[in-house]
Records
---
Amino acid sequence: MLLRTRITLIVATGFAVLMLGIWGATLLRDRVAEAQESELAIEGQTVLWREIVAFQTANLARILERVDGSASFRIALGFSDRPGVASALQELGVNINDDATYFEVVSADREVVFSDGGSANRYILDAGSLDRALKGEVLSGLRQVSATQVIVLTTRTVELPGKGMAVLVLGRDAALGMERFARGLSATTTLVTLRGRVVASTDFRLWERARLAITPRRPTAERVVLDGRNYNVTSIPVSDISSSTVGALVSFEDTTESVQATSLIHRSAVAGAIGLVLIGVIGLNVFLWYSFRPLESAIDVLQALSRGDTSVTVGHVGNDEIGRIASAVVALRGNVQALAESRRQRERVRRRQEAVISSELQALADAIDPTDREEVLALLAKGSEGGQDDELRRVARVLHDLSRRIVEQHTRLSSMVVELREALITKTKLAGLQQELEIARQVQLAILPKEFPPDARVAVHGQMTPAREVGGDFYDYFMIDDTTLGFVVADVSGKGVPAALFMAISRTLLRSTALFERSPAGCIRRLNDLLAVENEQMLFVTVLYGVIDLSSGRVSYVNAGHNLPYRITRGGEVSTVPSTGGMAVAVLEGFVYVEHELHLQPGDTLFLYTDGVTEAFDVDERPYGEGRLEELLRSGAADWSVPELSERVLAAVHVFERGAPQADDITCLTLRYFGGHGPRRTR
């Protein structure tokens, strides 16, 4: 490649890097601006929605104040005159026949005195909110009254003649405030519940086409393209009167025109920059071509001399740089001619000497083994073909190689005899060790529980697959009394025989401690103190130990640094069991563990496992991970039998590995609670 071409490429590369840097900085700036814009949009829409809700509740409060002060309302309500109450409310601006209006009067004994639908069991407020209202607290905000109905309400506590304290509840459909919210933003707005059901929408078709995956509890802002139109989609969570999230308000703002204008500006800027770079690179190449013409002429002359063509002369001789190069070329031509003649003389002498020495070396090479003999002969042939090395140096090199091969041949034979003797001894020891490891494997698997006795209240199944002959994982389940079942899954640090021995000790101590220490926290604390006292090998074990009351489904558990188990409801919902924050057992003596509780409903399932499941790697070194495990459990784990669940997880891991060796011990424990308060039943 010509020098001017390299210079042109370097400059062009510099321009390209500069343009990429500017483009990257622009992208980064745009992303920062977009993030700030999203935060401002979320904050602004949240404030706007709060102001709209506050405005609506203030109006409702003023109406309730008038209702409280209406004598006709109180008289009609005292005589349970429903038409009279409706007429009085109508005069006060409350149309109970309007589907968007909700009105209810609840007495201190939680009896519905009057409701807009005439039913005595409507209960707009839940029990907790009603208690707060009866204590005189004014409740204002949102309330979800059905799966697809959310209202804005306010309350007022009044004293009714002959009925004591009562709560007036007045509400309006939240869709009215949502429409005002949409007009304030000049955007399309949809209100969805926590389960993703649409409460109201100003453009239901747009919402259906978008098919967004919204997380109602978390504010989000993103950009989507629908039917060639660009939209800024903002989702803000909305809270009810108990300060819990009831749903999300999703707005679609059409930004097609601004996006198209920005895209046009970007494309124009990029095209202009590329055009300027091309013009600069082409101009630089033309300039370098004109400047390097004299130097290229001198290079052509030097290339001819390198080919042995001494007839080439330089036409330009002067005092400039090209002239000095021409004078040097003339001197070089004379030296090349003299060197060529001297080389021809040395070549004739070298060939005569090489023939004699090569014949002697070939005779000596016959004394070694055939493989080395062929290599020595090849080295001789290579030296003859080279023709440029000093003859004595070449002979010395061949002799040195031949001597080395003879010594190595003798050394190899001696080593082979010694290695063969040692290999026989090692093979005998290895066979015995393998037999002992297989016995240890069978013993380890034998101490694990095989099947849980048939019980109508619960089903339990465990399975362990060690990565080596013996492993450090273990699981266990046992009846503490007639109504209490203990279960545990643990993972000892390390692998092989040390981990297996530590596993056996840990399992034995845990089971014996659990029989007299009913509290999981106390049991794990005692186990930790026993194992940490003389733990010279610095081994530790992660443990998840729990006990379940088979009569009520209450589970008390301690998580000592172990993987979070999964809870699978009868309906198929999958969630992780919260951690108790404990460290691994046998690390620190005297550590205090905390236990948590959860309640299983009939049909609920607990799935416990070790990190050998999620940290299984395929042939591309990719981990299986919690995401794939959760996806598998959601695909129908609630409908699988207890043994089938563990088998499907193990099968999915093996399919994922695609033949890769197992990296760690794999252990699974599945517990399904069926409920029941009676005695145990066998089948």
---
Amino acid sequence: MTTEIPPVAKQVPTERTHHGDTVVDEYAWLAAKDDPEMIAHLRAENAYTEERTAHLEELRGTLFEETRRRTQETDLSVPTRKGGYWYYTRTVEGQQYGVHCRRAVRDGETEPPVSADGAPLDGEEVLLDGNLLAEGHDFFSLGAFDVSPDGRWLAYSTDFSGDERFTLRVKDLSTGEVLPDEVPDTSYGIAWSADASVLFYVTVDDAWRPNRVWRHLIGSPAAEDVVVHQEDDERFWVGVELTRSEKFILIDSHSKITSEVRVIPAGNPTGEPALVAPRRQGVEYSVEHHGHRFLILHNHDAEDFALAFTSADAPGDWVPLIPHTPGTRLESVDAFADHLVVSLRSNGLTGLRVLPVGGGDGHDIDFPEPIYSVGLDSNPEYRTRQVRLRYASLVSPDSVYDYDLVTRVLVLRRRKPVRPGPDGREYDPADYEQHRDWALADDGTRVPISLVCRAGTPRDGSAPCVIYGYGSYEASMDPWFSIARLSLLDRGVIFAVAHIRGGGELGRRWYDEGKLLAKKNTFTDFVACARHLAGSGWTSTDRLVARGASAGGLLMGAVANLAPEAFTGIVAQVPFVDALTSILDPSLPLTVTEWEEWGNPLEDPEVYAYMKSYTPYENVAAVDYPAILAVTSLNDTRVLYHEPAKWIARLRAVAPRGDYLLKTEMGAGHGGPSGRYDSWREEAFINAWILDRLKA
């Protein structure tokens, strides 16, 4: 059967009217997930995509093998100490998922144990083997994984479809028995009581909003569980966690711009949640327990946040600890017995600041590279003088450090191995260059760009380039290392990250200037970055591919309409391209909680008109678009599969001369395939398409 002719989706005109504006949606029928005709259409699209990319099969195989060859498949993470155990995860060659383990701490042992070539540690105890759990399933994901304070119980949750609806279970680590008290349809986030007799967990409402925190008594039926807190405001979602000190259960209610925290003493899990501070519209705060006080990280009269504290016994006024400094965004605070570690960002880079509790000057931890990403890793011990850090750059593989808070000595525990590539050469960061450049946006704002390429890559406009962007939710695209990316760099491709407004790279203002009625700055910033790269010798428009995912997929669709001539190809993964339709429907997952990010087009005609003016699906035009590859998943609950399906259908109808492909994972969720080998194959598929477009 030939599939050279692209699938044509039938048109069933469906009207909707808002604020006097009537819109016809010919492809609304594609939202019927259980419609056999819709499933047949997606399968036809997959067959067409496979046929159109059949010539890339050998290249896909080559790229997959390059990733596999460069990856140490049998591997073991740096063990983390908690109580009397070292906890770690290891992977085994040929197996898709990690094996979660622990090993008892031995007398006099202060350094994390190591093993040769990722082999199991002597005396290890397997807590959970993802490969065994995944048997018989096309998809597998862990939502929760938390050992009780006494080390006896393991609470974990599993998802076998990708819809992020987890089943929570408890395993007795002393016997290996999985208890009968099973809880279906849970969300992320769990917390143990101090004596491990009670487990708190979260469930969602019909719109997939985490709205309830429950208390479960170990050994009892789930039907007897009690709702501890219910969030009725549909703008807010809830979470639950145990403080590092193991003294309090935190229940956090959060909207996009407002928060409220309640606490329950971990030693009295049946107690009523006590409010730390009532919610005030536009004020965000988080709580960390430290001795006699609660640390409060907040943005009250502090755009980039300040740090304060209040009494843990009787929360009241917030006493300043670190004042607000414009341009230095305080992102979180981690409390240890004798030190505080503040995670922050300044001048577009992440950083860590250490504050001794007993007085003395604080200090920032220094790192040598000009562009990098650093943050705290897992640090479960409250009484410690050493913290675990994670570090990476565009050329430095993921690294784990231990930092002595007193002596200020930084010890490299492990750098992720990168095995020799196809040419047999060892990976050497010196073979690559990383740069920071700046583009000038339409309104005169300077927008940072991070770039990486092979050393000696020409700056005469001849090099192919991929430009990546996101630009929403204050999420920062900090530099990250990728083994799969090396296959592009070694073929002469430049990889660039546009740090556009809507993200958080340059503080809260950077985010505010790319949301609501300023959202178009996100799109024009990205186009400005693309044109800067093409105009300053990095690349040229006929050798530039744009890539983004989720809200970054909205970005891809918007720039395709805004500047189709600026790119030779666009990759849009799980793209939020029918944003107006989704944000108009409060019954859809997450819609109401999103109104403070995009605006509420149901109630506000100005928001409606503004969103309609940029939503990709609404603005498809009869122009020459670059080639587009859209990748989605049938079970995605964050960006529903029908958004890209409708988008591709309308592109084919309105601009039929274009080259448009849709690839749908029929058994996955928002993150795509779950197994590591399946993920590598997916990345190889995308990169092969990119290389073909770039003629690289």
